[in-house]
């Protein structure tokens, strides 16, 4: 994989591993050995763009705000994290018991520590070189997630990286659960996604971001409990790990 990356001119991406902590998601060796990934073909001139995209969709960096969006399995307590590839595609990844899992499906190779970081053995399809077939969250993996909060992040174009630069601090995103959004006033939620409510959506996000280096209990104690919408409606927000059953309207 490293040689392929050099072949398609991604020297700078490999060098960035030392500075930015890039993680390279490498297909299992047996796929190369069985010629499922046929290197001679990928080195042909007409395959240059394909090979480049193939490499980029296997590189992730942990500095994106997407890495803070997580899903939790209520039965097992395992978390899944949404990460972004250098190609711009998204995927959910779980790592438990020293085995990398994707969408709660166990993969055969454990983590392989290397000098440049951790190389994971993952099974990806060769054609096409994108991971959208795997990238969509499914209810089979979990029954608690925070992907709606991520929609607002995307809409506001705010990242933890940007905000951390403004405030010179590392930040933790603290999102309501999917259950909370399901019971949320959808009229208000859709307003948050509209251009006219950009400022208020940004304030909503800032209210769900807190500094890092704290325990989960400390984060929970500092997180906001209420949100007041521009139309005057007040909501009590359920926090991740909270025993309260759901978000409640202020009038209840």
Automatic annotation (TrEMBL):
It holds the Pfam family Fasciclin. Residues 1-126, 137-252 form the FAS1 domain. It comes from the Eukaryota. This is FAS1 domain-containing protein. It comes from Fragilariopsis cylindrus CCMP1102.
């Amino acid at each position: 994989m490293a040689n392929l990356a050099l072949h398609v001119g991604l020297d700078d991406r490999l060098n960035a591993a030392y500075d930015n902590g890039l993680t390279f998601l490498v297909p299992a060796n047996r796929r190369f050995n069985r010629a499922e990934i046929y290197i001679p073909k990928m080195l042909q001139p007409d395959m240059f763009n394909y090979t480049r995209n193939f490499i980029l969709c296997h590189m992730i960096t942990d500095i994106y705000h997407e890495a803070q969006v997580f899903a939790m399995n209520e039965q097992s307590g395992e978390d899944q994290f949404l990460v972004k590839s250098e190609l711009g595609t998204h995927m959910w990844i779980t790592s438990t018991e020293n085995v990398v899992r994707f969408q709660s499906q166990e993969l055969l190779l454990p983590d392989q520590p290397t000098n440049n970081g951790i190389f994971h053995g993952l099974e990806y399809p060769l054609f096409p070189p994108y991971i959208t077939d795997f990238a969509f969250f499914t209810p089979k993996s979990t029954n608690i997630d925070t992907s709606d909060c991520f929609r607002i992040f995307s809409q506001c174009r705010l990242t933890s990286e940007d905000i951390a630069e403004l405030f010179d601090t590392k930040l933790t995103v603290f999102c309501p659960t999917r259950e909370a959004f399901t019971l949320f006033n959808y009229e208000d939620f859709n307003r948050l996604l509209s251009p006219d409510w950009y400022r208020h959506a940004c304030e909503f996000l800032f209210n769900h971001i807190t500094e890092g280096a704290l325990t989960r209990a400390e984060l929970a104690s500092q997180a906001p409990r209420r949100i007041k919408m521009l139309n005057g409606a007040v909501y009590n927000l359920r926090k991740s790990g909270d025993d309260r059953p759901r978000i409640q309207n202020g009038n209840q």
